[in-house]
Amino acid sequence: MSQTVLILGGGVGGLVAANQLRKALPKEHRIVVVEREASFAFAPSLLWLMTGGRTAGQISRPLARLKKKGIELVHGEIERIDAGKGEAGVNGRTLAADFLVIALGAELAPETIPGLPPAGHNFYTLAGAEAFREALARFAGGRLVVLTAAPAYKCPAAPYEAAMLLESHCRKRNIREQTQIDLYAAEPGPMGVAGPDVSKAVRQMVEAKGITYHPEHQVKEVDTEARVLRFTNGVEAGFDLLAYVPPHRAPRVVREAGLLGESGWIAVDRQTMETKHQRVYALGDVVSVPLRLGKPLPKAGVFAHAEAEVVAKNIARAITGKGKRASFDGKGDCFIETGDGKAGYGKGDFYAEPLPQVKIQPPGRRWHAAKVLFEKDWLRRWF
Question: Could you tell me which residues come within 8 angstroms of residue 169 by beta carbon, excluding any fewer than 6 positions away?
């Protein structure tokens, strides 16, 4: 009997789940991906895009390529989700599924900070990174600010990488002496969930570049005309060029579906990514997985990828009766770009008790080269 797996979202998690399911299941079973965007952009490379090292075409792939693999693609807006029935409303019609996978990521909400959207550039989107690159090309010196507008966001290393890459960029353009670079962070330290040693190491990387780091500065509003950031602690900071990470929240359709737990995100079994609804899974940035230290598992592509592998294996097992039950182990890694063709590398077990066990390798050319290879391999493998 033919069964349908409906995957909501064509990001990292959705793509990996769809590809793995297509390989594991006989052709009579349908794999359907719903995504509103026509193309996929490889988020780790947005940092290179914003500093001129990549073009949009180099880091993007058309999702229509999935069709050649036997994966159905529905291009449109998801209007509703009924997890109890295992269905979703898309473009005015209902899509029913035997298994439902919610991989819709996090919704970026810069508009929740008054004045923020027109004042700077959201480098967590393709359009925002491109716009910042154009502004950076016109920048001849002054106050360059990188801002995290909320203490929790996906890709925890990214704003710190951005600041260091921008510092390197300014040196290459011979405008470093005319440029003050500040990083204002809502969080108390870099990558806090990875532990104090990692946090200290990343902070040292940033400050060694002459970048001024301001932790625990929660922005409350931006005066666009005066080019001034105002923080809840009473501090005000001027800027000439602003790159920011916006606040994140669960997508509207997920909020309206009543799927959120106390965390404001979907609650799942931390080994299988199963929700409270039978045959309904959620993975990636749209979920919250609590850790013993009181913080959630970071939102990062490496975890979405691993979770998707687990979900795909378990759905395939449920349909075919073959294979062993898979379990997500909380392990992950990431590169930390520092500029000048170098990067650090962090790896560890975030499910370790009582605290995550994460170690970081100092910056070197080998890790930057490894990230370049990872980018090329990822885009080749899944498209």
Answer: 51, 52, 136, 339
